[in-house]
């Protein structure tokens, strides 16, 4: 079976630094993905250069099927020497993940990665190898749905030193923290935000070192079908509903008129959930056969705001709190990030007369831009998105 590779990485800069001394590089290849987390010596500009060069060289060469020995030799000979320390040094962890679930990990001087299965740490045996003067740790495992692979830089392990924790957030403490999260089928991004968000808290929001996390999960492919807006011509209602009926996977309806058409054509009742009330956001509804029914333009606007925070490592706690809410926007975000691997977006092109009133900001052009932005953010989260208009 070929799996979907769910990847998320986040980084916090050392307090007062414009550039991060860690760098994470990802690339797709024929069999899956190559992921590299590198930590440059020190912090700031010099560390950023060392880490960026290391990660980019590793990804570029391995993508072109270069050997590990040649890749490490090139890194060693290419890195500029620090004028103060007289060293050219950058740690790295390389993850070569295949769509089959097979994963190979190469580590040099970074904290050990974590592999979790059924919510508990499950580590394979590692072998040591000396390559061009560097002691490398090699390991291999086969991931399956529900597993998580997590790579961190030492800035995560050192979180809290001299502040909330005497000896920092030790590797064993991080392991226990992740095990206690009981993530289930959550997205890799949820784990990344959980760990880096707490890292920031331990640093009192003033990191004493660059801190980075790279998370990988494998998932069985699952489609989310999102129907937003009614067809331009009423005579196409039946065709629109036929697409809804034939869609395989999760089914979400966004928009009162859209839901009304599907409810009418299928003879299914549409019930508003009055228990779910949120300021400035209409309640959701329920309908047999639909995984979620929400209002349209306001709810999708809130989904966009949540997904924008998904890429902001400084707002991890805000993102996690918002994602856990019970309103339609948060539920749709969870379906996108936790449940789906690809999205089919059916956009009806009818103009809502209510949106054409003078002074009303949500006109048809706004809707088109909104769908375009939503598609962009879902693709940025790693989901493959297909857009259909009717």
Write the layout of secondary structure elements.
Blueprint: E1 4-12, E2 22-28, E3 32-40, H1 44-63, H2 68-78, E4 90-98, E5 102-108, E6 114-117, E7 120-121, E8 127-131, E9 134-142, E10 148-152, H3 154-157, H4 171-181, H5 188-202, E11 211-219, E12 223-228, H6 237-246, E13 250-254, H7 256-266, E14 271-272, E15 285-286, E16 292-294, H8 297-309, H9 316-323, H10 328-339, E17 342-347, H11 364-380, E18 384-389
Parallel strand pairs: 12-13, 12-17, 13-16, 17-18
Antiparallel strand pairs: 1-11, 2-3, 3-4, 4-5, 5-9, 6-7, 6-10, 8-9, 10-11, 14-15
Helix pairs in contact: 1-2, 5-9, 6-7, 8-10, 8-11
CATH-defined superfamily of the largest domain? PPM-type phosphatase domain
Alpha-beta content class: alpha+beta
Number of strand elements? 18
Secondary-structure element sequence?
EEEHHEEEEEEEHHHEEHEHEEEHHHEHE
Could you say what the CATH topology of the largest domain is called? Phosphatase 2c, domain 1
Describe this structure in words.
- The chain is 34% helix and 27% strand.
- The protein is of the alpha+beta class and 390 residues long.
- It has two domains: 4-219, Phosphatase 2c, domain 1 (4-Layer Sandwich), CATH 3.60.40; 223-389, no CATH class.
- It is elongated.
- It starts with a strand and ends with a strand.
- 42% of the residues are buried.
Short description:
It holds the Pfam family SpoIIE. This protein is 34% helix and 27% strand. The chain has helices spanning 44-63, 68-78, 154-157, 171-181, 188-202, 237-246, 256-266, 297-309, 316-323, 328-339, 364-380, and strands spanning 4-12, 22-28, 32-40, 90-98, 102-108, 114-117, 120-121, 127-131, 134-142, 148-152, 211-219, 223-228, 250-254, 271-272, 285-286, 292-294, 342-347, 384-389.
């Amino acid at each position: 079976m070929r799996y979907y590779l769910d990847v998320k990485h986040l980084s916090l800069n050392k307090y007062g630094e414009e550039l991060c001394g860690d760098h994470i590089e990802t690339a797709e290849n024929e069999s899956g993905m190559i992921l590299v987390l590198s930590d440059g010596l020190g912090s700031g500009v010099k560390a950023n250069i060392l880490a960026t060069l290391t990660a980019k060289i590793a990804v570029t060469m391995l993508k072109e099927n270069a050997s590990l020995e040649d890749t490490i030799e090139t890194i060693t000979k290419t890195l500029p020497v620090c004028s103060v320390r007289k060293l050219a040094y950058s740690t790295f962890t390389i993850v070569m993940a295949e769509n089959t679930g097979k994963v190979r990990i190469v580590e040099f001087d970074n904290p050990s990665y974590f592999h979790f299965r059924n919510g508990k740490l499950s580590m394979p045996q590692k072998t040591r190898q000396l390559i061009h003067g560097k002691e490398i740790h090699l390991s291999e495992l086969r991931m399956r749905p529900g597993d998580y692979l997590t790579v961190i830089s030492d800035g995560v392990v050192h979180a809290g030193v001299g502040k909330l924790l005497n000896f920092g957030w030790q590797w064993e403490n991080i392991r226990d923290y992740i095990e206690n999260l009981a993530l289930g089928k959550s997205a890799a991004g949820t784990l990344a935000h959980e760990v880096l968000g707490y890292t920031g808290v331990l640093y009192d929001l003033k990191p004493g070192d660059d801190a980075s996390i790279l998370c990988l999960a494998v998932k069985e492919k699952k489609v989310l079908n999102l129907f937003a807006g009614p067809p331009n011509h009423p005579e196409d209602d039946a065709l629109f509903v036929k697409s809804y009926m034939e869609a395989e996977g999760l089914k979400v309806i966004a928009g009162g008129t859209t839901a009304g058409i599907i409810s009418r054509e299928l003879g299914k009742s549409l019930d508003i959930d009055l228990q779910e009330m949120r300021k400035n956001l209409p309640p959701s509804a329920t309908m047999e056969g639909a995984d979620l029914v929400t209002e349209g333009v306001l709810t999708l606007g809130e989904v966009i705001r949540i997904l924008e925070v998904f890429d902001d490592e400084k707002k991890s706690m805000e993102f996690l709190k918002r994602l856990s809410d019970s309103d339609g926007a948060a539920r749709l975000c969870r379906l996108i990030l936790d449940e789906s691997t690809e999205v089919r977006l059916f956009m009806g092109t009818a103009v809502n007369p209510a949106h054409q009133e003078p002074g009303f900001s949500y006109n048809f052009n706004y809707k088109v831009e909104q769908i375009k932005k939503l598609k962009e953010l879902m693709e940025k989260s790693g989901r493959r998105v297909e857009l259909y208009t009717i």
